[in-house]
Amino acid sequence: MTIRLAILPLFLxxxxxxxxxxxxxxxxxxxxxxxPTSAETTAGGSPGAGVAAAAPSPKKIxxxxxxxxxxxxxxxxxxxxxxxxxxxxxxxxxxxxxxxKQLKDAxxxxxxxxxxxxxxxxxxxxPPRCAVVSFDDGWKSQYEVAWPIxxxxxxxxxxxxxxxxxxxxxxxxxxxxxxxxxxxxxxxxVDIQAHxxxxxxxxxxxxxxxxxxxxxxTRTKLTGPxxxxxxxxxxxxxxxxxxxxxxxKVNCFAVPFGSYNExxxxxxxxxxxxxxxxxxxxxxxxxxxxxxxxxxxxEANKPKVFVDAxxxxxxxxGGASAVAEVGAANLSTQPAxxxxxxxxxxxxKANLSGVGAIEPGSVQMRVSGLGVVPVSYDxxxxxxxxxxxxxxxxxxxxxxxSAKSEGKKVEAHWTxxxxxxxxxxxxxxxxKPVPTPKK
Length: 439
Ligand SMILES: [Zn+2]
What we know:
The protein is an alpha/beta fold. The protein has helices at about 1-20, 35-45, 45-55, 95-105, 115-120, 140-155, 180-185, 225-245, 260-270, 305-315, 420-425; strands at about 70-75, 80, 90, 110, 130-135, 160, 190-195, 205-210, 215-220, 250-255, 275-280, 295, 295, 325, 340, 345-350, 365, 370-375, 375-380, 385, 395-405, 410-420. The radius of gyration is 25 Å and the shape is globular. Helix 4 packs parallel to helix 6. It is built from 11 helices and 22 strands. Strand 8 (about 205-210) and strand 9 (about 215-220) form a beta hairpin. The termini are far apart. The strands form 6 sheets. Strands 1, 4, 5, 6, 7 and 13 form a 6-stranded parallel sheet that branches. Helices cover about 30% and strands about 20% of the residues. The structure holds zinc ion (ZN). The site of zinc ion has 5 residues, from loops.
């Protein structure tokens, strides 16, 4: 009896996994890493477990019903060092570990990049609130320091490698990761993806460095056929080299500095990349285009980027009418949160382009002391603005911008101060230029 009961689920499981393999040729692009990593995601009681259990009617081959309201934030890290010298691309191991812990504490599930893409193809479910962790540029500290921390949490991750930057390559110095280390990561389920050959601006006519045969590097601009040939090496050559050296399938392409255009995208698509990644972080939804997936680049001196990213998906509890709170810092507001202006008639602005597709008629701004104000919204730039025409009386002003994006209400709150003395002055000049908030 016990034996039969034990055999039955086994039979169903086998049957199910065979069904899964056959129906779509797209599964041939399934990651080499899928078995160890999906085991990881399933272990936490994720919906993946439910899928296998729900297989008792194997005659119908159906795609899993995926939760289209799930959201994923993607992080991009570079070097892990104890002493920060380049805050733009470095983080201390302690700060990194603390951030990984925060994901866990916030109930955010770290999934593989391949699971994210499978979900976007409608082939696999993911938990409602997810994160993907990626490391760029191939530093050995990612192998020596980041990996053990990731193992501690049982988190999967993706490495974006530029091939000339691997040790022994023309740009691979002593701090670079080695091919042997990459192979070790591959063998242990780490996803390895492409980040060009030499890590430069890929757009035609931009300044680049070219290595001459003697090893000397010269600054130049390429156009026409020469540019096309170089672009092929960067986009296609990098993929081929990674696939050949490591025996893997590469389907993701992280664009250096996020600088690309339609032509670069087309070359990448033709090369077989399924997804392209930039550095303009935003929650990834079911309908986010896969050729410009934004990642949050985490820098040592801007811890707020991480906090805001977590906040972006932190408030969506799965309820249909939930309001997603957006960090004002993500909207490049003007005046900025916490800033003090010297006019009672400020121009109030926010940029909603990072929020996702906005339904134009849904954009609304409330200003404390004024209520709902008539805003202008430019769908092309995503900018919502309102020139205050009636003097603000308080010495602080709260703005609430809300909009609907993909059926969900998103909202941002921020508060700025008004310098009373300056505000009382007659005929206020146009708002004094204030330090522009960072992008
Ligand atoms: Zn990079």
